[in-house]
């Protein structure tokens, strides 16, 4: 088994384990999102889970701060803003430890690219760029396959949306990944949530005395 196949296999296994752990630990809180979380460089991965009860807790916490109370005013508006902010979920990193083996293999894949001798007169920048891009694409592909495996295993109910998420990510990209991983109804729900949050942002701007 080569390094990429080893990573793909471990990521799939870790994602299935994380999904089952999420149900065991947080199922009573009504899970609505299960995602693989990464960054723009795709050099780390772990499962992030969001629940309705956790969302309400964090929204109430934000509303205790005067600035957010002024901007959001109500619990419903606060929850609309925070629903698809994975880093605000109380359970965002709760499942991270289960990805240690997959992360170690991913680190080795990235190290293999970083170890190219850039001082070598035969070094080709395009080679590095191409391999970087291909590895990014491979990580996305492996993540989608792992999440599809969870979906096919029937671990969650139909109210859970699967996605590949990162901190600095536009709504179009989130909808793009969601469309590849969910049925049409889930994508419609996600789009409606984005529209509702945007509508609330418009009201805030109108109310802002500045």
- The low-confidence runs, each spanning 5 or more residues with pLDDT under 50, are 117-123
Largest sheet: 3 strands, mixed
Distance between the termini: 60 Å
Question: Could you tell me the strand content as a percent range?
Answer: 5-15%
Structural class: mainly alpha
What is the N-to-C succession of helices and strands?
HEEHHHHHEHH
Gross morphology: globular
Number of H- or I-type helical stretches? 8
Widest β-sheet, arrangement of strands = 2-1-3
- pLDDT averaged residue by residue: 91
Protein name: DUF4303 domain-containing protein
Organism: Frateuria flava
InterPro entries: DUF4303 (IPR025409)
Helices and strands in order, then pairings?
Layout: H1 3-26, E1 31-38, E2 46-51, H2 52-63, H3 66-72, H4 75-82, H5 100-114, H6 125-153, E3 161-166, H7 171-181, H8 184-207
Parallel strand pairs: 1-3
Antiparallel strand pairs: 1-2
Write up this protein.
The structure is a single chain. This protein has 210 residues and is mainly α. It is built from 8 helices and 3 strands; from the N terminus they run αββαααααβαα. The chain has a 3-stranded mixed beta sheet with strand order 2-1-3. Strand 1 (31-38) and strand 2 (46-51) form a beta hairpin. Helix 1 (3-26) packs antiparallel against helix 5. The longest helix has 29 residues, at 125-153. The radius of gyration is 19 Å and the shape is globular. The termini are far apart. It comes from Frateuria flava.
Structural features:
three-stranded mixed β-sheet; mainly alpha; 8 helices; single chain; 3 strands; 210 residues
